[in-house]
Amino acid sequence: MVEDWFDMATKDDLQGVVRDELRNIGTAPITADDTKITMRLGDRIIDMERKVNDLQSKVGSTVQTLNAMRSTLDAIKKKVGA
């Protein structure tokens, strides 16, 4: 059985390959497809950020409502001696 280079490679060998590939990516020309993918990814990130902000706002409103309800409940308990 012949061993694959990947199986025999050391950690330094693998890091070298990754480092070389990252350098190649940095010098590769940008294509129209790359631009489209980047724009779609950017749109998704913006959309996700909006959803997170909306959810955060809803959670904040819900927490305020729950705190008001808690205060009302505490006031009722105090009034009836519970």
Structural account:
With 82 residues, this protein is an all-alpha fold. The protein has a domain at 32-82. Helix content is 85%, strand content 0%. It is built from three helices and no strands. The chain has helices spanning 5-8, 11-27, 32-80. The longest helix is centred in the C-terminal third of the chain and has 49 residues, at 32-80. The chain is elongated. It starts with a helix and ends with a helix. The mean pLDDT is 84.
- SSE run: HHH
The largest β sheet comes out as: none
Low-confidence stretches: none
Could you say which structural class the secondary elements and strand pairing correspond to? mainly alpha
Number of helices: 3
User: Beta-strand level of the residues, as a percent range?
Assistant: under 5%
Quick one: how many beta strands? 0
Helix content: over 70%
Q: Provide mean pLDDT, rounded.
A: 84
Terminal Cα span: 79 Å
Morphology: elongated
Radius of gyration: 28 Å
Question: Can you lay out the helices and strands and say which pair or pack?
Answer:
Elements: H1 5-8, H2 11-27, H3 32-80
Characteristic key phrases:
85% helix, single chain, 3 helices, mainly alpha, 82 residues, 0% strand
In short:
With 82 residues, the chain is mainly α. It has a domain at 32-82.
